[in-house]
Amino acid sequence: MQIPKYKPLDRKSHPPYLFPAYGSSVKRGPHRRLMPIKQTLSEITGPLFSGIKLDPGENDLSRSVDTGGEAMGERIIVVGKVIDEDERPVPNSVIEIWQANAAGRYRHPVDQHNAPLDSNFTGAGRCVTNEKGEYRFMTVKPGAYPWLNHSNAWRPAHIHLSLFGPSFVTRLVTQFFFPGDPLIPLDPILNSIPSKNGRQRLIAAYAHDVTEPEFALGYRFDIVLRGRQATPFEDRRA
Amino acid sequence: MKQTPSQTVGPFYSIGLTSKTMNVLATDGTEGQRIRIEGRVFDGDGKPIPDAMVEIWQANSYGRYNHPDDKQEKPLDGTFLGWGRSGTDENCLYGFETIKPGPVPGHDGTVQAPHINVVIFARGMLLHAYTRLYFADEPVNEKDPILNSIKNKKRRQTLIASPGMENGKTVYRFDIRLQGENETVFFDM
What we know:
The complex is a heterodimer of chains A (238) and B (189).
Chain A (H helix, E strand, L loop, with lengths): L1 E2 L21 H4 L6 E2 L4 H4 L30 E10 L9 E6 L24 E5 L5 E7 L4 E3 L5 E3 L2 E6 L8 E6 L10 H4 L4 H5 L4 E2 L10 E4 L2 E3 L7 E2 L4
Parallel strand pairs in A: 3-12, 3-13
Antiparallel strand pairs in A: 1-14, 3-6, 4-5, 4-9, 7-8, 9-10, 11-12
Chain B lengths: L13 H4 L16 E9 L9 E6 L25 E5 L5 E7 L4 E2 L5 E2 L2 E8 L6 E7 L9 H5 L3 H5 L2 E7 L2 E5 L2 E2 L9 E2 L1
Parallel strand pairs in B: 1-10, 1-11, 8-9
Antiparallel strand pairs in B: 1-4, 2-3, 2-7, 5-6, 7-8, 9-10
């Protein structure tokens, strides 16, 4: 049986479990060395959600699905492609999206930030990549918000994304940021990424070609998932 | 191209990830032994985490994954995707309604004991962590290549879920410890 393996997790691109400047990691990041295992069918398969049909409006966070009322804030269009390390597109892949509203408040009971909620904004959505791996959703630009990590701590504006890719090992949850945000260099969560280039890759690019006149600003954020090993592993008993 | 870096799910993931029920894998027609899986995720102080999220991926009762790269000649069960997601409730418990998977092939003709693939997310975790759940009542655990590669018995035990009965239903308890003396074995894969 041919087992098409995936390339290893790139430790220079991903944060370590423990990053003391991000206080919550200290008690929650595993301490012991991870145990290396060879990929088997269990690792190279994963949920594909093929044929998934989204409800109308799931890829448009900028208005209420119930009333059609528009969320407050700067309307933006986010596009990008999901590819693997060899630039192969990852088609028909679900992307789950969540974010704070334009005032920097999440529609979540734990968020006690003294900023207004917006009845037209849930802050959650989904989109699916097309055959070329491209995705697109509309939303409003999230606001920055304070958190208790350190004195006068503020998260830069960001949008959370969750992706599966074709296997159990390609799972990715990340966040992207907006260019020119002065809070970016101060953010311990983004700074947990070891390489400067890695941190840079989480900042979306302003995309004037995506911007629609008299309507919304465009941003582009491409996502790279783990790719296949060049030579598939040949099981001797195949 | 370099991999896009991981970031934490943060404290508010539930609005995007767990607002719908996704922890029921087995439906009426699903073949196999019905089980519930339940547990808590503990931090380095031994405190249960109220904002963790667990996802599972498993083979069907025959030991086949619902995925095109699983080319085994075992039956597929059209009612069973094999994937689920659970946040933690007010008692810090996660849980899944599923079936016990069958054994799946490992490397070089080996057979892997029935297991469920597990991935853990939480506020404070900058990168998710992978582990596996094995069933305490499976004699084939003794031949499982991955369990056997964990030399320390106590460490190996962190991957074993013990069965109990609750309201006539088999419940496997699987607690996950992110740190400490009994830190769960997590995989680099």
